[in-house]
Hints:
Shape: elongated
Distance between the termini: 37 Å
Oligomer: single chain
Largest sheet: 7 strands, antiparallel
Number of strands: 13
CATH superfamily of the domain at 25-120 and 154-175: Type IV secretion system, VirB10/TraB/TrbI
Structural class: alpha+beta
Amino acid sequence: MRTVLALFMAIAVSTVAVPAQAGEIQVPAGTSVLLKFLDPVDSATITEGATVKFEVAANVIVQRAEIFRQGTPAQGVVTDVSQPGIFGKNARVHVAYLEVTATDGRPVRLSPLDISADMIRQAKDAGAAGGASLAGIIILGPVGLAAGAFIRGGHVSVPAGAVGTTKVVEPFKLETP
C-alpha cells in the first residue's frame, strides 16, 4: 500500500512539474528577425546618435511558439556614418543597440545592422568602380589606378518600408503562458 501511495505521489508531483518546464522555450542566439524601417534612412542626412525606428516585419516562431509578433516596435541607435569615398566606396550607416520586446515582455538585444549598398542591392556601383580601376591598371598602369581614385561612391538611402535582417545576440528562455 505504501509503495502504491508513493508511486501515486511521484506521478502527481511529476505531472505538476512538467507544465512549468513546458512553459519555457529556449530561443537560440542567431535566430533571424526581419525588421521593417518605419522612417527613411539616408547617409547624407543622418547623424551619429540618431534613433532609428523599426517594427518586426514577420512573426518569429521557435518550437511552435511565437517569439516576436509582426508589428512589434523595435529601435536602434546610429553609431557610425561612413561617407562615400574614392574607388567607388559607398557610404554606410551602422545601427547598433537594436532592441525589440519578446512576446513575454522581455527586451531582447539584436545584432547591429549595417545599411550599405550591399544591403539595398546597389553593389553594382562599387563593382563598376573597382572594375574600372582594375581595367585601368591593366591597360594604363599606375595612371589607370589613379583614374580609379576619381570614381566616388554614393550615399545610401533606405526608404520607409524596406526590410533588413538581424539576429538575436544571446540565447534566452521565453516564458509561454
